[in-house]
């Protein structure tokens, strides 16, 4: 499958601070790729370079096969979604979308308002919208140039859980129906891992991992499970043939989920909760640091 973003040996520094240190990764066409890492890890700097807003010091960057730096042709084929709507807040939703549409004359803003259920807000000023609806309007405006790629920088950072779930559902539908590739930076892993198909993880300006989500979590070879039981020591003995260990109140084990559940059941141990390895777990495994501890 072809790549819509290719980064090789990218380095960016600000005075004595190195923001990006020789990073390389690619983004597959048609994917929803999560660009994840703690605050200050280099996500926004990378997004700005991919968007043509910032020039790299070293390395090669190709977006849709072109160098994005100061390149108007790129901006005709991609859209950028920020953490919040920065456009004039006194504009109405209708005026804002029509103004953006007039720049490209490709997509009817009425169709977009209908698709996003924004008709009843058309005369509402942007300043009067909730944070969730502002992001919905921004995502709607991102479709007005009929983009092949949408790059989003922390698009759900200021939203409540309900608004985040709705925003992510819209992204999934756009990806399936229109084939738009998404590259989404975020530090909110719990919601993001339900949406993305691929992941690029960055930490302290370096790429930690880049792959499909399944490969990243190890699910292509075997399940990595976190299990809460009523009798952990007995469960651990029942799993003696597996790579299992106790971690706090939980048991962490690798193997086939059905076989593991059967082994625990046969030992007459009650399973209270079971889940597969998460992106947080994978970050800890690759960096030796807890993801949440780095969000301060």
Defining key terms:
Rossmann fold; alpha/beta; Alpha-Beta Plaits; 296 residues; four-stranded antiparallel β-sheet; 11 helices; ATP hydrolysis activity; 2 domains
Tell me about this structure.
This protein has helices at 43-50, 72-75, 93-104, 109-115, 131-141, 161-178, 189-192, 213-217, 232-238, 257-266, 279-287, and strands at residues 3-14, 17-28, 32-36, 58-63, 78-81, 149-153, 181-186, 198-203, 206-212, 223-229, 243-247, 250-255, 271-276. By secondary structure, the protein is an alpha/beta fold. The chain has a six-stranded mixed sheet with strand order 5-6-7-3-8-9, sandwiched between helices. It has a four-stranded antiparallel sheet with strand order 11-12-10-13, covered by helices on one side. The longest helix has 18 residues, at 161-178. The two termini are 38 Å apart.
């Amino acid at each position: 499958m072809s790549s819509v973003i290719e980064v090789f040996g990218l380095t960016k520094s600000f005075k004595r601070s190195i923001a990006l240190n020789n990073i390389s990764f690619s983004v597959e066409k048609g994917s929803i790729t999560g660009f994840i890492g703690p605050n200050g890890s280099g996500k926004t700097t990378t997004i700005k370079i991919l968007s043509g807003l910032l020039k790299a010091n070293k390395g090669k960057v190709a977006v849709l096969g072109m160098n994005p730096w100061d390149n108007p042709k790129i901006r005709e084929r991609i859209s950028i979604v920020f953490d919040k709507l920065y456009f004039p807040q006194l504009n109405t939703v209708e005026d804002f979308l029509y103004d953006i549409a007039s720049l490209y004359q490709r997509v009817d803003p009425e169709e977009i308002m209908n698709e996003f259920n924004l008709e009843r807000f058309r005369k509402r000023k942007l300043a009067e919208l909730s944070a969730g609806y502002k992001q919905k309007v921004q995502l709607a405006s991102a479709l007005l140039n009929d983009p092949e790629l949408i790059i989003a920088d922390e698009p759900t950072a200021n939203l409540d859980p309900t608004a985040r779930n709705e925003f992510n559902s819209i992204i999934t539908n756009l990806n399936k129906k229109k084939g738009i590739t998404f590259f989404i930076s975020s530090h909110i892993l719990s919601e993001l891992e339900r949406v993305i198909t691929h992941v690029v993880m960055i930490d302290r300006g370096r790429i930690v991992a880049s792959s499909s989500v399944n490969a990243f979590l190890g699910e292509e070879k075997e399940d990595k499970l976190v299990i809460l039981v009523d009798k952990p020591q007995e469960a651990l003995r029942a799993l003696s043939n597996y790579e299992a260990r106790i971690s706090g109140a939980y048991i962490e084990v690798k193997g086939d989920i059905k076989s593991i559940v059967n082994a625990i059941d046969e030992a007459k141990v009650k399973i209270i909760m079971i889940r597969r390895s998460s992106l947080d777990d994978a970050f800890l495994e690759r960096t030796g640091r807890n993801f949440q501890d780095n969000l301060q």
